[in-house]
Design brief:
The complex is a heterodimer of chains A (about 130) and B (about 150).
Chain A: E1 9-15, H1 21-29, H2 34-37, H3 39-44, H4 54-69, E2 75-82, E3 92-102, E4 105-114, E5 117-128
Antiparallel strand pairs in A: 1-3, 2-5, 3-4, 4-5
Chain B: E1 19-22, H1 25-34, H2 45-50, H3 63-76, E2 87-96, E3 105-118, E4 121-131, E5 137-148
Antiparallel strand pairs in B: 1-3, 2-5, 3-4, 4-5
Classes of the chains: A alpha+beta (about 130), B alpha+beta (about 150).
C-alpha cells in the first residue's frame, strides 16, 4: 500500500498484453467487436491490426489505483479519455501523480502510455486514503 | 459537397428497460484473470471471506460486464441514430458505491444523457445506474461515444 500524499506518485503499473489477450478479454467482457479479435477484419478497416479494447486499458488504469491504495473498494471514481489505440504485445505503462488530498480522498492524475504515445489521457481517479 | 447532417437529439432523456445481471463467482474470476488482477480477494473465496467480503469481489471495472446488456439497446436505438461504423469510444467515467461480490444481482438502467455536435463530430453520452439487490447504487457510468463526420 502506497501513501497517497499531494505531489506523490503511485507506483507505475507495467503490463504487456500477450498475443491472445484481446480474445480472453472479449470473452470476459462480452465485447466481440471484430476489430479486437480478427486480424484480417482489423486491417480491412484500416487499423494496423487487432487493437486492445479501450475498457481493458481503462481496467489497467483502475488496477494501478487499487494496487496503490490497497483494495478494490478504495477506488471511488475514475474518468478517462481514450486516444489513439492500444496494441497487443507491446508494454503499457500506467503512471499517476496525486494532485490533491481532501477529506480522505486523493485525486490522482493518471495516463496510460504505449510505444511513446498516450492511449489514455487526462484520467482522473478518486481514491480513498483511509 | 454534401451539407453536414445535424445530429438527431429527440432521444435525449430516453430511458431503456432495466436489465438484471447475476454476478457469478467464475465470471468474476474469468474477468479478474483477463485484466491481470492478482489481488486474491478477486480470485479466492477464502481470501475474500478473510477480508470481510461475502464472496469473491468484482474488480471495479467489472461494471462493464454487468452494464453491457442495458447499454446495447440504447446504443443501437434507431431514434438515437448512431452511425456505428464511424463510432469510437471517446470517454468513460464510473463512480462506485459499495463493492459487488459473487451472488449479487445488479440491475442497470441506461438513459440517453446528451446528444450534441461539435467540430463535425457527434457526441452521444449515455448514463447507466446500477443497483444491487439491497437497493444500493453500486455504480454510475457515463459513456461518451463519438461519431466522426456527422
Amino acid at each position: 500500500v502506497t501513501e497517497l500524499s499531494q505531489g506523490g506518485a503511485i507506483p507505475d503499473l507495467k503490463v504487456t498484453p500477450d498475443r491472445y489477450l484481446t480474445v480472453r478479454y472479449a470473452g470476459a467482457s462480452g465485447d466481440f467487436n471484430p476489430i479486437h479479435i480478427d486480424e484480417g477484419f482489423a486491417r480491412q478497416v484500416g487499423l494496423p491490426g487487432r487493437i486492445l479494447h479501450g475498457l481493458y486499458t481503462m481496467a489497467q488504469v483502475a488496477r494501478a489505483q487499487t494496487d496503490a491504495a490497497g483494495g478494490p473498494e478504495k477506488l471511488r471514481r475514475l474518468t478517462v479519455q481514450f486516444r489513439g489505440m492500444g496494441l497487443p504485445e507491446q508494454e503499457i505503462t500506467v503512471s499517476g501523480t496525486v494532485r490533491e488530498v481532501r477529506d480522505g480522498v486523493a485525486v490522482v492524475d493518471t495516463v496510460a502510455e504505449q510505444g511513446g504515445s498516450q492511449i489514455i489521457r487526462n484520467a482522473e481517479a478518486e481514491v480513498a486514503t483511509g | 459537397l454534401r451539407a453536414a447532417m445535424p445530429v438527431e437529439t429527440k432521444a435525449v432523456g430516453k430511458t431503456y428497460p432495466p436489465h438484471t445481471y447475476a454476478v457469478g463467482r467464475e465470471k468474476v474470476r474469468e474477468y479478474a484473470n483477463a485484466v491481470g488482477e492478482t489481488n486474491p480477494v478477486h480470485l479466492d473465496v477464502d481470501a475474500a471471506r478473510a477480508a470481510g467480503y461475502a464472496d469473491v469481489v468484482a474488480p471495479p471495472m467489472f461494471a462493464v460486464v454487468y452494464s453491457a446488456k442495458s447499454m446495447a439497446p440504447a446504443v443501437l436505438d434507431p431514434e438515437v441514430a448512431i452511425n456505428l461504423a464511424l463510432m469510437v469510444h471517446g470517454g468513460q467515467e464510473f463512480v462506485w458505491g459499495p463493492p459487488v461480490v459473487a451472488g449479487d444481482e445488479i440491475t442497470t438502467t441506461a438513459t440517453v444523457k446528451d446528444i450534441s455536435e461539435r467540430d463535425g463530430k457527434g457526441f452521444y453520452v449515455f448514463e447507466t445506474v446500477s443497483t444491487n439487490q439491497d437497493g444500493d447504487t453500486v455504480c454510475t457510468g457515463t459513456w461518451t461515444n463519438i461519431v466522426r463526420g456527422v
